[in-house]
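> forwarded from #structure-qc
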């Protein structure tokens, strides 16, 4: 049993990390604006607060899932994005190295430009937006800080949401419910991945010997689809006709998005750590609580 701190425990991924890891570990979660007991409030922009928190809890593992992950928000506020996505991550990595805490950083497929998929773990960074740049910068510092730090890159995530607009996948259901003939991006290739599969992967990774954990891991489901493709599955779940949806065969969002960042998970495959699920079934379960009247 390990003592694990999860930052971003009030967020989409963090909430599920807390649930899954608590089965066989002592887990302490931190959040910010949504933190309420037992989740501790910790502003990751306050270095003295981080030091006090680590002095108090002395974890074996720290999973850093907190970030600003909306590309359009990052594009519009570079200073706040650097503070949270880069500076706070660097400070945590330094603290973890000094305290011999296994540091795990959650990064993104957006560190790539999407023109030469699939990407191996050692592929060069080529971000096309500020969010991707901030994560790439954090990765570089973390890797140079310690060979024992772990970086996991993940694609677009879905899972239990507090409200439909919380994730880039479930918001599609809201769009379809509001407008059954809504338009959906049919250009960018995505690999929607369930947060529980990320959590199960991390549970398996933290059990590995020290010689296996350092460096970059890719964690991704393997079903490729555009947002229009996801919308067709989702329309069926929410009781609308997929034939009414409108396909948009070019990019549709403000901050530039990469075309196809397929992540090849060669290191996890070598360790025989792979969790996947069928999108059509999984999205049905995720949406069910939001469709009951
Ligand atoms: N969601 C995706 O599709 C996706 C895709 C690729 C990579 N990722 C990466 O996966 C990780 C988890 O993403 P997510 O979707 O779970 O994010 P999320 O739902 O947006 O949650 C972000 C978390 O960061 C916390 N936070 C924000 N500002 C903070 C601050 N100043 N101090 C402390 N905590 C702060 C939030 O706390 P409060 O809400 O309590 O303020 C929240 O717990 C992130 O590193 C993200 O970049 C996500």
């Amino acid at each position: 049993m390990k003592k694990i701190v999860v930052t971003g425990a009030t967020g989409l991924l963090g909430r599920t990390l807390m649930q899954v890891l608590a089965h066989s570990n002592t887990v302490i979660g931190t959040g910010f604006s949504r933190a309420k007991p037992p989740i501790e409030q910790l502003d990751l922009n306050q270095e003295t607060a981080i030091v006090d928190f680590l002095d108090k809890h002395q974890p074996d593992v720290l999973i850093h899932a907190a970030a600003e992950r909306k590309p359009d928000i990052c594009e519009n506020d570079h200073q706040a994005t650097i503070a949270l996505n880069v500076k706070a991550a660097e400070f945590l990595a330094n603290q973890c190295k000094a305290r011999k805490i296994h540091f795990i950083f959650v990064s993104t497929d957006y560190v790539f430009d999407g023109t030469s998929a699939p990407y191996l773990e050692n592929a060069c960074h080529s971000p096309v937006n500020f969010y991707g740049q901030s994560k790439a910068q954090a990765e570089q510092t973390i890797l140079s800080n310690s060979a024992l730090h772990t970086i996991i890159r993940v694609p677009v995530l879905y899972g239990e949401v507090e409200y439909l607009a919380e994730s880039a996948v479930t918001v599609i259901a809201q769009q379809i419910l509001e407008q059954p003939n809504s338009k959906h991006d049919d250009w960018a290739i995505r690999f929607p991945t369930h947060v529980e599969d990320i959590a199960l992967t991390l549970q398996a990774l933290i059990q590995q010997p020290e010689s296996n954990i350092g460096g970059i891991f890719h964690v991704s489901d393997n079903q490729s689809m555009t947002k229009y493709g996801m919308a067709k599955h989702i329309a069926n779940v929410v009781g609308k006709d997929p034939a009414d949806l409108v396909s948009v065969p070019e990019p549709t969002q403000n901050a530039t998005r990469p075309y196809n960042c397929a992540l090849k998970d060669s290191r996890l495959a070598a360790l025989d750590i792979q969790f996947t699920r069928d999108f059509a079934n999984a999205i049905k379960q995720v949406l069910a609580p939001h469709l009951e009247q």
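QC bot note: The CA atoms of residues 111 and 136 lie 5 Å apart. The pocket of NAP is lined by residues 8, 10-14, 31-35, 42-45, 65-67, 69, 84, 106, 108, 154, 156-157, 167-168 (CB under 6 Å).
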